[in-house]
Design goal:
Blueprint lengths: L10 E5 L5 H11 L6 H7 L5 E8 L6 E10 L2 E9 L8 H15 L4 E7 L3 H9 L3 E6 L9 E7 L8
Parallel strand pairs: 4-5
Antiparallel strand pairs: 1-2, 2-3, 3-4, 5-7, 6-7
The structure holds coenzyme A.
Length: 163
């Protein structure tokens, strides 16, 4: 086994294009129990309220380190998905994306950010709790495999939270 330490590429967040979706759906198929298909991601492009952002390396702008999908719908901004590809986890990329999404919520005058997350998904629940989200509902058998969800919410009060 190699002891090489992964060098983190310099990276930036930008709106996704259709050209990103092969790589995004490939990552998605590896990390989620019920992954979205490429067609699901394509479908988001026709919804005016839906945003897909990708975090890519600055050198080629094609390597996808992470991505997120959210719906900005007036007072509510709903996060549907935040994924950091396995080699890049634990370096603050999800936190960076979440901070940018909060900033977008403030820009669009959202009053709260909401999301559903699998009860067993401790890294994601930890990420959202650390950002100040509270569990506001328990959704029994919410997912297709019967798993329960936490519905979580973050109230925005006009300033970017430091988390
Ligand atoms: C959840 C996920 C996005 C976190 O990405 P990440 O880049 O590793 O997270 P970060 O390094 O930005 O960590 C931010 C905070 O999240 C929490 N967190 C991250 N990984 C965690 C873990 N394994 N266990 C508990 N908390 C964790 C911590 O509070 C962390 O803050 P800290 O490092 O200051 O303690 C990543 O694990 C992932 O892609 N999981 C698969 C996809 C998924 O389930 N997405 C959520 C669906 S909505």
């Amino acid at each position: 086994m190699s002891d090489a330490i992964l060098e983190l590429p310099k990276s930036s967040l930008r709106p996704a294009t259709l050209d990103d979706l092969d790589a995004v759906s490939e990552i998605e198929s590896r990390v989620h129990l019920a992954p979205w298909t490429k067609a699901n991601f394509e479908g988001e492009f026709s919804k005016p309220y839906s945003k897909t952002w990708v975090l890519t390396d600055d050198e080629t702008d094609t390597k996808i380190l992470a991505y997120c999908v959210f719906w900005a719908m007036g007072e509510s901004l709903e996060i549907l998905n935040i994924v950091v590809d396995l080699p890049y986890r634990g370096h603050g990329f999800a936190k960076l994306i979440l901070q940018s999404v909060v900033r977008e919520g403030l820009k669009t005058q959202a009053k709260h950010l909401i999301l559903d997350v699998r009860k067993s998904n401790l890294p994601a629940v930890g990420l959202y709790q650390r950002a100040g989200f509270a569990i506001t509902q328990y959704r029994k058998s919410f997912y297709s495999n019967g798993e329960d969800a936490y519905h979580m919410s973050l109230e925005l009060d006009g300033e970017l939270l430091d988390f």
